Amino acid sequence: MSDESESVVVVGFSLHDLGWADVSLQIGPDVYTIASASYTTDALGDLVRFALMLVVGGVAAECSFDLEPTEMRLRGVSDGVTVHLSVYGFDSIHLDRPIEAGAREFYATCRVVDLGRAVALAADAVLSQEGGTGFKARWTEDFPTRALVALKAALGTVAS
Fold first, then answer.
1. What's the CATH code of the domain at 61?
2. FRET partner for 83 with CA separation of 20 to 30 A, picked from 11, 16, 106, 111?
3. What single DSSP character describes residue 70?
4. What is the pLDDT of residues 144-160, one digit of tens each?
5. Residue at 124 is within a domain
6. Is residue 55 in some structural domain?
């Protein structure tokens, strides 16, 4: 588990092939990659909205990644300053199981604002590399522009 007061927080969203992406999380020295998330969920949009929920003061947020047929679920529980992040694995995305039924594969803590900034930077990097049209061509969903604008606005109101 990393010390949230000193943590470097980096989030990556890397498109590869048509409709597949890797989501990487680095919280201090701890690194985890959700490999080959499918276009069957709005993975980048869900990730941005996940961060937005926490930045605006949500106590908990989740987003799900379809690995066809398995599921990886990112869960954040926050006290408003620190977020406890966990990634849980499930044998099927289609069963809608409670979080307790999953196997926790990653856990780390960091400041909510640092996570929000890292997700915004990751989304900006995708937009810069792919453009809105390129993103839609590779992912089949529109780029999550409104969610990213909202996240950046929320981050603008949060003290460092």
1. 3.30.2450
2. 16
3. -
4. 999 999 999 999 976 65
5. yes
6. yes
